Amino acid sequence: MSLLRAEKITRRLEGEVPVTLVADADVSIERGEFVVIRGPSGSGKSSLLYLLGLLDRPTSGKLWLEDEDTSRFDEDRLAETRLEKLGFVFQFHFLLNEFSARDNVMMPMRRLGKLSSDAQQQRSGQLLRDLGLDGHEHKRPSQLSGGQRQRVAIARALANDPLIILADEPTGALDTKSSENVRGILRELATVQHRSVVAVSHDVHFASVADRQIEIVDGRIVPPGDAGAATAV
Amino acid sequence: MNLHLDIALSHLRSRRRQTIVSLLGVVLGVAFFLAVSALMRGSERDLIARLVDTQPHITVYDEFRDARPQPARMLYPDAAVEIRGVKPRSERRGIRQYKQKLAAIDAIGGVQAAPILAAQAIFSFAGRDEAVTLSGIDPTRMQGVSSIDDDIIAGRLDAVDANPNGIIIGDALARKLSLAMGDTVSVVSPIGNVRTMKIVGLFRTGNASYDESQTFAQLTRVQALMNRPDVANLIIIRLNDAYRARNIAAFIEETTGYKSVSWQEASKDLLDALTIRNVIMYTVVGAILLVACFGIYNVISTVVLEKTRDIAILKSMGFRARDIRLIFTIEGALIGMGGSILGVAMGSAMMRAVEQVEIKPPGSIDPISLPIYWGLDQFALAASFAILSAVFAAWLPARKGGRVHPVDILRGAA
After folding, report:
1. What string of DSSP letters covers B240-286?
2. Which of A171, B93, B204, B342 is the 20 to 30 Å CA partner of B233?
């Protein structure tokens, strides 16, 4: 059974001019799978990612996470699910500027409240070390490079040992070297740690390390046979 | 530290200047609330204490609250429409059978009563005449009811018992007529009786008008001087619990028929004025705090606006809407609490400073310090009003923060 399964999910924005961001999308993500969602700008990649990450509710269709129908979840349950099972990495690190790297990583742990304060500090330290940030724990985001900030963001996403990491253009704002670094880290999360990784990216090199690519054009997933119809921008 | 508190503090630190300004608003609001309230309530309590301590709690007069009905009207209640030209019966003024009524009042419990025959008289000394109020008293009873005994500065109140021709006068009157202890003075009643009386005591209440006009002598001596044997026209009463006065006065009036006025009734206009003054006072000082809360609303609104990206991230991490609301509400509460603590300190200093000021109220001889009320209830009122207002002021933008949809922000940032 798939870890995450979306069945005919649609997201439409109502208004003077209704806009369909995603239409009838069927997606399944397996454990330990690295999936990249590709498509031109404005094709609905991020919208699909937000739906899969329970950040947004589909207008129609269903989404199952570990065989639980999430359409029945209220807002609080969705928040709890994101906290316990999902981790997000965004294009711009979105770290909290008033907190150190360590405190940023600890934030989801503190919210969950399952580990003691000492255990939280230990785990956050270990995560940062694993991502090559030993010695940077007490620095604020403004004191870190772009690549370092993104690695802190990844560490934060891993804080509560999530099932799935969802990344929206994680290398979009990074230089080549940092991009390679982040790509390698995400690949390793899937391969070594058997976490599922779903990432949105324009980057062809980034997509090349994925187990599978999903192409989306004008809000619709392109069937695998027609793959390549989308062009990266 | 609690996570929400941690994040709230970080927000306030990020807008340090605005936070300090908002805090100052609350500090000043609380401080002035306390200073004004302490002064107003202090003066109110001082005034009431003076009423309670220096005036009788109940005064029974030799008159009736309502005009007594004419016998003809009582006999023919349905037939008599109006009775004109009735010659009123001349009644001897005074409380009838005052001794029996005194005994009945004594039986009430928690009550001390004293009879008085108060009349106008003329002091004549060294060619000068001075109009005074001469009160015939029973010193033993008087000591338990009136505070005049505490105001004696020479001689004793019960000296009028030892010396039946003794008289006690105010020191202001003594100075006016150049009288001293042991001097004799002629006292003339309205009906022309003259008695030579000896100064056996001096008192000072601090009220110039009272000290110049009020005099005391033995009851029987005054009754004889006024040719009103066995008469008292006042019964003054002191209670163990001054606040029972209204009920007991009503009971005495119902029992004796004579008009019995409690200190609350006698001072009704004053007490009503004090109530209105308090309403105005609390409205004004409350308004100061409300204005301070606009500052809090402003800083929290600004923080919410600036932190929409952070809110989106926190929500993506799993923070619920109520977590976000709580964070911003805590920010308001922190400003309210911090402002209250500092405001209480500043207010206390202001109260201490005001307490050092001395004034001389009209009619008073001695200066007094401005009375300040230090009761904990007003500190609690000021602090709780400030905190609640601050929390409410923060809660409005906090609601807005809680409604932030992370996707809207993330889409805009991408």
Report:
1. SSGGGHHHHHHHHHHHH-S-EEEHHHHTHHHHHHHHHHHHHHHHHHH
2. B204
**Burial degree of B78 (CB within 10 A; 0-12, 13-18, 19+):** exposed
Choose the final residue of a domain: B224, B258, B292.
B258
For residue B315, which residues of chain A lie inside 8 Å, CB to CB?
55, 79
Radius of gyration of chain B (CA): 34
The yes-or-no verdict on residue B363 having pLDDT over 70 is no
Alpha-carbon torsion angle B188, B194, B196, B202, nearest 10? -20
Q: What is the pLDDT of residues A105-154, one digit of tens each?
A: 999 999 999 999 999 999 999 999 999 999 999 999 999 999 999 999 99
Name the residue with tokens 């009788």.
B56
* B260-301 confidence digits (pLDDT tens): 999 999 989 988 998 999 899 889 888 888 888 888 888 889
Confidence at residue B51, expressed as pLDDT on a 0 to 100 scale? 76
Cβ distance of B318 and A88 shorter than 8 Å: no
Structure tokens that stand for A207 in this block = 């997509």
CA-based nearest residue in chain B for residue A117: B1
CA closest to B14 among chain A residues: A98
**Identity of the residue in A83, A91, A96 whose CB atom sits nearest the CB atom of B318:** A83
Residues B152 and B184 in one domain: yes
User: Which range of residues forms the domain containing residue B13?
Assistant: 2-52+270-413
* φ, ψ at A34 (rounded to 5°): -110, 110
ipTM metric: 0.90
Identity of the residue in B310, B318, B411 whose CB atom sits nearest the CB atom of A80:
B318
- When mean pLDDT is compared across A86-90, B15-19, B70-74, B87-91, the lowest value belongs to B87-91
Q: How far is CA B144 from CA A191, B114, B124, B240, B386, in A?
A: 99, 8, 31, 11, 46
| Chain B residue closest in CA terms to A153 | B313
Chain A to chain B Cβ contacts (< 8 Å): 69
Partner residue opposite A94 with nearest CB, options B313, B321, B411: B313
CB-CB under 8 Å, A84 with B410: no
Mean of pLDDT over chain A: 91
Same-domain pairing of B247 and B280: no
Q: Which of B10, B11, B307, B316 is best to mutate for the A interface (most A CBs within 10 A)?
A: B316
State the total domains in chain B: 2
Query: Which of B200, B224, B258 is the endpoint of a domain?
Result: B258
